[in-house]
Design a protein that fits this description.
Number of domains: 1
Structural class: alpha/beta
Oligomer: single chain
Order of helices and strands: EHHEHEEHEHHEHEHEEHH
CATH superfamily: Metal-dependent hydrolases
CATH topology: TIM Barrel
Strand order of the largest sheet: 4-5-6-7-8-9
Largest sheet: 6 strands, parallel
Length: 278
């Protein structure tokens, strides 16, 4: 099964605003529709067997609403793993407790550039404490640039979180691109760090087979649909071009993401490789 561990099936009104943000900045054309059902269909058509849908909050007070929408919309969907988010301006403990105990969210997403915060913000400690116990992975898009790129210092901040919370399973979104070397260094220092392969709009993550040697079981495939100008097929081809062993390629394209979900305290009994049928 191919697992896309980084997609954004969001409320249509929010998706339209995000798309307009990029259109106004003359971003390259994005081939995938932002409407959640249409984007879901595009993922199925591309051969994805399961996806993680990751919401994110640009300010306080919206995370809980997004998390509830995600759970209500996709909670019974065998194809979509509905994620949750939180913002440091929220009552973080309350939002996280609701997401874990009531919404049963298997994965969290933090978007630092959209929300204007650092992953090391101590107000997020209730999140890190909770997931250190329950096992939910947290996808962290660090940085401050509007187009989504990150500097080495901004990626280093995730290393600080990994040091303070060694039991938290942290996924560096977009491999910290373009600070990919920093991400690789941090992954070799912190066994609880993972990274996904999402392009940054039109820019793929630049990695070689040699660079990822020994890290194959901590790298996840991701497309960033619908906010991406690179096709899913192109992103898959880049992974296959590495010439990994069959077991390692299978791990990167899906096994690693499934292993992270299996390690949580939330059973995903709806998971099945059935082509995305509900």
């Amino acid at each position: 099964m191919i697992v896309d561990s980084h997609v954004h099936l969001l409320p249509e009104r929010l998706g339209a605003k995000i798309r307009q943000f990029f259109v106004e900045r003359n971003a390259p054309a994005m081939p995938y529709p932002y409407q959640p059902e249409r984007a879901r269909d595009a993922l199925v058509a591309a051969g994805i067997g399961l996806c993680w849908s990751l919401p994110y909050a640009h300010r306080g007070s919206v995370a809980s609403m997004l998390n509830r929408w995600m759970a209500q919309t996709f909670g019974e969907d065998s194809f979509v793993v509905p994620g949750a988010t939180v913002h440091p301006d929220d009552d973080v403990q309350a939002v996280v407790r609701e997401a874990i105990e009531h919404l049963r969210a298997p994965v969290f997403k933090l978007h630092c550039s959209v929300g204007s915060f650092s992953p090391g913000d101590r107000r997020l400690d209730p999140l890190w404490e909770a997931v250190s116990s329950t096992g939910q992975p947290v996808v962290v898009h660090t940085g401050s640039a509007p187009e989504g790129s990150a500097t080495s210092d901004e990626v280093e901040a995730i290393g600080g979180v990994a040091s303070r919370w060694p039991r938290a399973r942290i996924i560096v979104a977009h491999f910290g691109s373009p600070a990919v070397e920093t991400t690789l260094e941090l992954m070799r220092r912190h066994p609880n760090l993972h990274a996904d392969l999402c392009p940054v709009v039109a820019d793929p993550v630049e990695l070689t087979r040699e660079a990822i040697c020994g890290l194959e079981r901590r790298i996840l495939f991701g497309s960033d649909v619908p906010t991406v100008a690179v096709s899913i097929e192109t992103s898959l081809a880049r992974v296959r071009a590495w010439g990994l062993s069959p077991a390692d390629e299978e791990a990167v394209l899906g096994g690693n993401a499934l292993a992270l979900l299996d390690s949580t305290g939330i059973a995903l009994d709806r998971r099945r490789a059935d082509g995305g049928n509900r």
